[in-house]
Amino acid sequence: MMGGFNHYVVVKFKDGVAVEELTEGLVKMVSGIEHVKSFQWGKDIGGPDFLRQGFTHAFLMTFNGKEEFDAFQSHPNHVEFSKLFSPAVENILVLDFPPTIVKA
What we know:
Layout: E1 5-13, H1 19-31, E2 38-43, H2 49-52, E3 57-63, H3 66-74, H4 76-88, E4 89-97
Antiparallel strand pairs: 1-3, 1-4, 2-3
């Protein structure tokens, strides 16, 4: 079964970054953009270092389709927030994909 579109971001923040403020800003930004169907995030709680590779936070946004994702990407709130988020990031991995849902 397929449906929707996912934007998955895994991040290692730079030392000294106010991560809590950034995540609060991210929540606020996402709340103001109607194209985002759902949003969740979390912080790693102790995976082995060799598996984590320094990454600490994961963010997942879902959309009804790629068109909504494209609209989100160019939304002024997202463009503006990216200017704060990007400089705080030491390393990032981004995957954008239509999910194959095995068990909903």
